[in-house]
């Protein structure tokens, strides 16, 4: 029997999509045009069917592309015409919330927002949150080691996972659903799969840490004169605001661009030549009213010392959402041939990198638009770069990528803070990893997937 015949015998017509029955969403990356459709899309709803699906694909030597919410920006879940997409959307649900141990056991296809809501009902919060919460899935977050907006407080996804279950490329099930904070029984195997982008196996279930539920966050927007003061403000915020949740920085060009492209959104601080810092914090003990009172005193001291130039505190959730809406930078998506960069550098080197990168871009492409923003406190910088040309020039875009990633390497940063390497950053991996590191990655890949069928072309 061939691959499709065996899969048809295993899966229902709703679980196996073929040919014209495959919706475009399975081969259309976020904010991109559709690719070629895969050979088929398998959507099993049980663990047994997932194991059998991978075993059948292994026996048929068919490439397998694991797919979660398909919200990544590095092409890590992009299928090829001869591949089998294994979509996890139907293998979803929360299996257990352990209130004594403060953990949740969840299936990989569960959207992040569903888990957030479920644990909130039990008095807990997750340590991970990001804008794609309604569509991204737990398995994909683990596979890409997502960070999001709360990393400065709770860490990245790698810090949240206690236990993991995966299916190896040949269909072998490895279940290590540990629920203890301390477990030093040999090598921590789960860490091999966190951030591996589906190249070593298919993540099926996870045990994730929980934290005490937070009261409504307090959100404020600050105006800061220069990059040095932004760094000093980060240190001060960590010292004086122990419940700090988010520390988001918008460079002057970013904020000015947004103010000119979002006429229906209130901008509470003028778009002057200064940095804007979106600061959010929340406590499991103190209410928003108590925190806001303390914040008012802190902001007053910062204003008096010259650390900040101006400040506004959101008085309700709608105003807080408006501030976050500015930070999300959605008008960038309308720029022609936009290139999104998600990189990381030591905090002290972030603004020097921005200045060097912008200068070098302008020297070659005088009409370039470069919009920097990011989390900063967790070293994460985003760059939206457009050559501002209606007709995309692929060679020029590749030159921009090489310029950015080469400079990242020279300054000791990494070409991927979130979203992984995928297919789009594979050619630039050497800017962040030395040859022995890449060789070790290749050895792990060879050990677990000697035929190279699991998400081929991704990362390595």
Automatic annotation (TrEMBL):
Ranges that cross the membrane: none
Residues in FAD-binding PCMH-type domain copies: 34-213
SUPFAM superfamilies, per the entry: FAD-binding/transporter-associated domain-like (SSF56176), FAD-linked oxidases, C-terminal domain (SSF55103)
Coiled coil: none
Keyword Signal among UniProt keywords: no
Superkingdom of the source species: Bacteria
Reported cofactor(s): FAD
Protein name (Swiss-Prot/TrEMBL): FAD-binding oxidoreductase
Organism: Leeia speluncae
């Amino acid at each position: 029997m061939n691959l499709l015949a065996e899969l048809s015998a295993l899966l229902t017509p709703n679980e196996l999509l073929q040919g014209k029955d495959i919706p475009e969403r399975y081969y259309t990356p976020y904010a991109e045009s559709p690719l070629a459709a895969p050979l088929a899309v398998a959507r099993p709803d049980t663990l047994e069917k997932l194991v059998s699906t991978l075993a059948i694909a292994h026996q048929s030597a068919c490439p397998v592309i694991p797919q979660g919410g398909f919200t990544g920006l590095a092409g890590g879940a992009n299928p090829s015409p001869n591949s089998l997409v294994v979509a996890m959307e139907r293998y979803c649900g929360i299996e257990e919330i352990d209130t004594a141990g403060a953990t949740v056991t969840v299936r990989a296809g569960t959207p992040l927002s569903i888990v957030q809501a479920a644990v909130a009902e039990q008095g807990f919060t997750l340590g991970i949150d990001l804008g794609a919460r309604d569509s991204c899935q737990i398995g994909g977050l683990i596979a890409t080691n997502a960070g999001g907006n709360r990393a400065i407080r709770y860490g990245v996804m790698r810090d949240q996972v206690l236990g993991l279950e995966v299916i190896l490329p040949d269909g072998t099930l490895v279940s290590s659903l540990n629920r203890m904070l301390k477990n030093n029984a040999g090598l921590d195997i789960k860490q091999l799969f966190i951030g591996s982008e589906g190249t070593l196996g298919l993540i099926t279930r996870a045990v994730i840490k929980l934290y005490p539920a937070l009261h409504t966050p307090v959100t404020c927007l600050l105006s800061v004169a220069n990059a040095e003061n932004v760094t000093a403000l980060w240190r001060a915020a960590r010292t004086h605001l122990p419940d700090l949740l988010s520390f988001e920085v918008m460079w002057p060009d970013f904020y000015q661009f947004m103010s000119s492209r979002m006429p229906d959104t209130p901008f509470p601080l003028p778009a002057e030549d200064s940095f804007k810092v979106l600061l959010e914090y929340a406590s499991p003990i103190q209410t928003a009213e108590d925190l806001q009172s303390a914040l008012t005193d802190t902001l007053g001291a910062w204003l008096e010392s010259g650390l900040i130039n101006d400040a506004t505190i959101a008085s309700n959730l709608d105003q807080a959402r408006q501030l976050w809406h500015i930070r999300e930078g959605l008008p960038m998506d309308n720029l022609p041939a936009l290139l999104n960069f998600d990189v990381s550098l030591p905090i002290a080197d972030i603004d020097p990198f921005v200045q060097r990168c912008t200068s070098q871009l302008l020297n070659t492409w005088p009409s370039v638009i470069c919009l920097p923003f990011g989390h900063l406190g967790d070293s994460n910088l985003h760059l939206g770069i457009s050559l501002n040309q209606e007709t995309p020039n692929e060679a020029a875009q590749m030159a921009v990528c090489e310029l950015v990633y080469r400079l990242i390497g020279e300054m000791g940063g990494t070409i991927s803070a979130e979203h992984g390497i995928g297919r789009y950053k594979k050619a630039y991996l050497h800017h962040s990893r030395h040859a022995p590191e890449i060789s070790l990655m290749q050895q792990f890949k060879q050990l677990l997937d000697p035929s190279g069928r699991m998400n081929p072309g991704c990362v390595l």
